[in-house]
Amino acid sequence: MGSPSIFPTGVTIYKPEKWFNGYTLFPACDTGALLIDMNGGEVKLWSKLKGFPNKLLPGGQVFGSRGERNDKYGYQDMNDLIQVDWDGNIVWEFNKHEFIEDPGETPQWMARQHHDYQRQGNPVGYYVPGMECQTSSGNTLILTHENCYNQRISEKRLCDDVFLEVDWEGNIVWQWHANEHFKEIGFDEAQKNILSRDPNMHECGGGMGDWLHINCMSVLGPNKWYDKGDERFHPDNIIFDSREANFLAIISKETGKIVWQLGPDFTKTKELRRIGNIIGPHLSHMVPQGLPGAGNILIYDNGGWAGYGNPNTNSRIGLKVTHRDYSRVLEINPVTLQIVWQYTPKEAGLMVPFNSNHLYSPLISGAQRLPNGNTFITVGMDGRLIEVTRDCELVWEYISPYFYNAYPSLNEVYRAYRYPYDYVPQLEKPEEVAIEPIDITNFRVPGAKPKGAQNVTEVPGAWDYPMVATDSFCVQADDGPVEDDEDDDDTLKF
Q1: DSSP character for 274?
Q2: What 3-state class would DSSP assign to 440?
């Protein structure tokens, strides 16, 4: 966040020798599912195909939705989930989750899909060598909504998150309802209190509580932890995260029970304190087998505001009690809870809190591990797509030139994915041209004068500027969570 009013769009940095070259797919604001090459060339548009998110399949096919429910009655509900080919022909579709009769609207079946889905054959929906999504068969795991009441949570109507598995014919063959596992999450009394009074209520449909707001869901797939005998990480088990409650978890596909969890309390142990608060996470998933870092959990930790608890200076009533004005990408060993890699404002060459907001998307976003070990990151609210190396070198950057008609300052990208060229046999491999970063100190729009004073006066006795002027800052820079001593026990000391 914190962009100037005028800035370049398209590809601004590109180092071909250090990047995993291919196509990038993302939902462009008020436009459709857009496929671009490494230099930002727009090689394919599926016009008006919504993406929550869009995903590419081998053979130049793409997932998306044809429409969204009127937000007077539903909250982020897509009408359907469809698979279309290169020419826009529907190959597969699902909508028969719930028959909706909203006032003044045409009665119709809806999927109520939101935020994520996965097709059998690939655990995460992005490119994994040797694990391609099935295109003409297989089941699909879909994240959906259902409205319900659960007195253990609140007397108010809830917008509940539901996992559906549907077969190729659209039959529901398995489902999981989040509200049925409220006790397992382990909310403390303060969190239960605010959830009872206000489960994150929205006005649509006469009022509904988006109590968890699950925004990702994927199977674990084959992994080394299960191969070593840890049943928590069975390949069929499902990982998800909760934006509003600040936690991520893995459920057993067989029992539905939560078998692994991170958050919402990040103070319990020194391992959790080292991680620090994860706030409003997005696209938490296990890096699939066959990619560098396989078996670790990759998280886009949004920051912003989220979580339930006691009222504090951030929250008058106990909603959205944690707050941080920057984002970070974390790669965590799920067994030891050690951070094995991260991309934070510090790695991006920024300083907390001085300009750390230059890496900040309080909503949406995501991170994808690439075959060369780099990480492809969507900084969603800035419409910024970047790739960074293991050493955190920025080797590609793209700024979306598509803005909402209704919100002309927003060029958000919900989530973007990178795919190899051979996923799209309909196109010739494009020419790749390196792009050096612009020298912003000398970059001017037409009519602006160049840098440099026309008249310079030397002041006698004036000192040179120090190389590092940190003493002039009003506050100290924060490099992140403080590490506990290795011999500390798990008791907080004051």
Answers
A1: H
A2: coil
When computed from its CA atoms, the radius of gyration of the chain, rounded to whole angstroms, is 23
Q: Which residues contact 136 (CB under 8 A, 6 or more apart)?
A: 91
Kindly list the distances between the CA atom of residue 439 and the CA atoms of 11, 70, 283, 442, in Å, as whole numbers in the listed order: 15, 46, 34, 6
**How far apart (Å, rounded) are the C-alpha atoms in residues 370 and 432?**
18
pLDDT single digits (tens) 107-135: 999 999 999 999 999 999 999 999 999 99
Amino acid making up residue 263: G
- Given a contact cutoff of 8 angstroms between Cβ atoms, the answer to whether 234 and 252 are in contact is yes
Q: Which CATH architecture describes the domain 14-438?
A: 7 Propeller (2.130)
**Residue 164 burial (CB count, 10 A):** 22
pTM: 0.96
Phi first, then psi: give them for residue 486, nearest 5 degrees.
-60, -30
Domain boundaries, the chain: 14-438
CA–CA separation, 392 and 373 (whole Å)? 11
The helix (run of H) or strand (run of E) holding residue 308 is strand 304-308
Q: How far is the C-alpha of 298 from the C-alpha of 388, rounded, in Å?
A: 14
